[in-house]
Amino acid sequence: MKNLKLGTFLREPLLHFLLIGALLFFIYDVQNENIVDNNRIVISEAQINHLITLWEKKRQRLPTQVELENMIEQQIREEVMYREALAMGLDKNDSIVRRRLAQKVEFISSDLATLTEPTEIELKDYLSANSEKFKLPARINFVHVYIDISKHGTNAEAYANSLLNELTQAATKVNIDTLGDSLLLDQHYRQLTEQGISRLFGKSFAEQLFTLPVGSWQGPIQSGYGLHLIRIDNKTESQQQALNTIHEKVRMEWLAQQRHNMDKVFYNSLRQRYEIVIEKTLRKDTAATSKS
């Protein structure tokens, strides 16, 4: 019961705002501290241990004392150059620096979203609300006979219909390998989704295939290549997957949605601290003002 109450409390929007406020206070407190003591560089024990760990992972051994001193000196050099760059204003008007700093602030809201794990009920609700995202797509097995329009011209459709009549009326099995025209694609396909067929034959062709009945020759259907006579040998309808079979996938999607929601709350709370002024432009050649 206590854990349930704690989980509910962690999901309260008020708590999220409090956490955002605390983080902002921390950021500005650290920022002001750096301004006051800007000429003092401290290489902490944690930083040194981090340097040793990185060295050990890369080289599979601990650094010697000289190597460690060199790493520490490099860290000091980097910090000195960084502070001098800030003092000279080199971080100003640099789009790459601006983007990187903005991303680091965005990471804060992402971290907030991972403070709590979803409950099973929340995952079930998320799966139910986003069922299309997690469905197994429909698949079909089919075989086709190709008719080259460039070869048969205005008679292509009549030729296709004559082949269709031969396939549907034949008393004995017809060798389809000898029918139609050659095409640098397979004649038989198995377990293809609509997306997979679209990549091969085009979107309209794929959509029509999934409306055809199973077991009989149909067509002609046109693709970007020409005309096709189609026989659907098997069709598997799309299926909703059970939560226990895609639990981790649903969890990751849920967390991603929480990060997105938290990012919106976090950004709006920051944006409200500023007066935003967007000046009008006198240019007439922008995409927004151009007319086709």
Automatic annotation (TrEMBL):
Residues 137-234 form the PpiC domain. One of its GO terms (molecular function) is peptidyl-prolyl cis-trans isomerase activity. Coiled coil: none annotated. Pfam families: Rotamase_2 (PF13145). Signal peptide: none annotated. InterPro entries: PPIase_dom_sf (IPR046357), PPIase_PpiC (IPR000297), PrsA_foldase (IPR050245). This is PpiC domain-containing protein.
